[in-house]
Amino acid sequence: MERFDPGQLKYDDSGLIPAIIQDAANGQVLTLAYMNEESLRLTMETGLTHFYSRSRQQIWQKGEESGHVQRVHEIYFDCDEDALLVKVDQVVAACHTGRRSCFYRCLHPSPEVPEELARRQFDPEAVYRGSLAIIQQIFEVIRDRKANPKVESYVSDLFAKGQDQILKKVGEEAAELVVASKNGRKEEIIYEVADLWFHTLVLLGHHGISPSEVAQELRKRYGKKGKAEYR
Questions:
Q1: pLDDT of 119 above 60
Q2: Which contacts qualify for 176-181: CB closer than 8 Å, 24 or more apart?
Q3: Does the predicted TM-score (pTM) go above 0.70?
Q4: Are 102 and 37 in contact, with CB atoms under 8 Å apart?
């Protein structure tokens, strides 16, 4: 992997470079924006995306008002050195409409395409992206409760009691899931898995680990042979 060198970049006549923003966890394209040298510098220094607004003629931080910030994982540049790819953790939504991605309208296939053909061309990742997004949303709340404890917050209370209490809850929820599985009742299993996942997210928050880092580890293992065979 080539090291990122801002000096190699080629800006257009307006001093801008297009930046594709991508979800680091699942690869979903979230938005296309523009950066100038200053907004790129701020992005790299703060770890939060900053863009240049062509309409307002000024630099702005994504999520500064809405709270829907983008935490930067990696920044790449293309072979022509005139475009950026920024992989991020997206809080809630990238689009001003409240949708996860700005690319939510389909140009092809058109409504006139037969339903069977449309299904074949449908992106299967779209089926579960919305479901997986809730995990990141919950984690953002957990991270906020750790940084800004709130009275009567269950999560803040867990953090206050420390790692041992968090580990105890993870162990308890895992045991309850085992019982639910033995009982064979679908609703009970779903409920207990949700409890276990939630408390595991709290544990990740305790260690400062993002769910996307776990997702990246799974992605590395997927398709490999041996103990890590996940395919």
A1: no
A2: none
A3: no
A4: no
